[in-house]
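Annex B. Sample input.
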Amino acid sequence: MTTWNELMTSAAPVAGRADTFSVTVGEDWLQGRTLYGGIVAALGLRAMEQAIEGLPPVLSTETVFMSPLPAGVVIIEVRLLRRGRNVAFAEALIGDGNSITTRVTAVFGAARPSSITVPVRSRQPSKPLDASFPIPFIPGITPAFTRQFESRLSEGGFPFTGSDDAATGGYLRFLDDPGSGAAAQLGLLDAFPAPILPVATAPFMASTVRWSVHFLQPAPVPKDGFWWFRADALAAADGYATSLGTLQSDGVVVAWAEQLVAVFDQPSG
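Annex B, continued. Sample output.
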């Protein structure tokens, strides 16, 4: 099994193209028939940071998943869109070498003087760690990538259990040590099922279409290694659902994510 750190450090420039990278991602990172969205977005971000010198810290990313990306060789092409005095904009186009399947855009920004401060509101877990439910890996049912994490459900219900609460989340940590940077946070923010899934009473496919992440502040790895995440479905209709989630480290909110998910619970007309 290839770990997160091994993938984050194995992307290599394509010969003669300093702005293009290649990395092989195995089936142990699959989520259904496509690679796990968190690893794809993180590889795009890391490629931008590697290809473009002198970038300030990343403030936000937006990932659009246009089609499935299979396991195997992944090609990442980086473009600097604009660089100002404090803010830079960059893009990573990701695919299998034949077509572009994913686009990651990122905003990087240096700190600026300001007297405006709005404290970030943290949330309280519904259950403590020791009262939460371990999420097992079940071959053929649980996505392959989940073996990279230790996860415990404390928010909402398990998928397809007819829960009254359109929410999901809990405690999770990597089985290896990915550090505390923005790329690692991308991996954590996408690890739990979409919060619309617990309200369903029968299995169906769901696929992320667009995923926007905002990084609020640097964060050390939690003392016990477990981050806490909760996402709530804000709306669902006409085959699409929108959710909002927050990631916390020892009670401090470090990032939030807004996600648009396509829901395939009914046959197409």
